[in-house]
Specification:
Number of strands: 8
Oligomer: single chain
Distance between the termini: 14 Å
Number of helices: 12
Bound molecules: 2-phosphoglycolic acid
Order of helices and strands: EHEHEHEHHEHHHEHHEHEH
Shape: globular
Helix content: 40-55%
Length: about 250
């Protein structure tokens, strides 16, 4: 059985006190199904405190990004090894906002995936097309190209620690969700791509999350699909009850 995962990407939201109270609220909900993995990704500055707060619970900690360099003179950047040292377990990489606002390419994301894995962190790797690409009907080509570039040189052994998130950019923060059929179609396509590169077992085991305006009202119809293993949640992860309700939607 594949893991069911709901990950909350807080993005650049919450002050430290707000973030700690959001994490505490989420923590109060211990009645989640045992087979669901709950991950929260607060801003960098909160990681150390949130890590202490959730220690021993069923909530896991993610960062939203890491540097493309190992360590050293890179003012303002945070290395994977630093993230590891404060109790981080996962790192979101290749988010469309990083691609759009910080010019991240598949090659840069590839380097970050390797650094993340080298530091025993699990990458949550994002892919997805923009609206224009879907309208031109090239969304499958775009996602295939992203996967190929991002996973270049990743060995099957390393691959077992990876989570993929399909996030159609036109659905992120827009209130527009991909239909369950659109999500399933792309998730199945991603899994077939992984199967071609890494074989049936790894393809079968890799969790593929959907992201883009996922909320309590639509999570069930998305998660019920055979290849949708959960969600990467933005806006709705900032409200503890909504986040938990999404996690109860399997
Ligand atoms: P959203 O964001 O749920 O607010 O659309 C999802 C994401 O960017 O991961």
């Amino acid at each position: 059985m594949r893991k069911k995962i709901v990950a909350g990407n807080w993005k650049m939201n919450t002050t430290l006190p707000n973030g700690l109270s959001l994490a505490s609220e989420i923590l109060k909900n211990t009645d989640l199904p045992k087979d669901v993995v709950l991950i929260i990704a607060p801003p960098f500055t909160h990681l150390s405190d949130v890590s202490k707060l959730i220690k021993g619970s069923n909530i896991k900690l993610a960062a939203q990004n890491c540097a493309q360099f190992d360590q050293g003179a890179y003012t303002g950047e945070i290395a994977a090894s630093i993230l590891k040292s404060v109790g981080t377990e996962y790192v979101i990489l290749g988010h469309s906002e990083r691609r759009a606002y910080f010019a991240e390419t598949d090659a840069v994301i590839n380097t970050k995936i390797k650094l993340t894995l080298a530091n025993q962190l699990k990458p949550i790797v994002c892919c997805g097309e923009v609206l224009e690409e879907r309208e031109k009907n090239i969304h499958f080509d775009i996602v295939a190209k992203q996967l190929k570039g991002m996973f270049d040189g990743i060995t099957p052994n390393q691959f077992s620690d990876i989570i993929i998130a399909y996030e159609p950019v036109w659905a992120i923060g827009t209130g527009k969700t991909a239909s369950p059929a659109q999500a399933q179609e792309m998730h199945a396509f991603i899994r077939i791509n992984i199967e071609k590169a890494y074989g049936t077992e790894l393809a079968h085991n890799i969790p593929i999350l959907y992201g883009g305006s996922c909320k309590p009202s639509n999570a069930k119809e998305l998660f019920v699909n055979a290849d949708v293993d959960g969600g990467l949640i933005g806006g709705a992860s900032l409200v503890a009850k909504d986040f938990i309700d999404i996690a109860k939607s399997f």
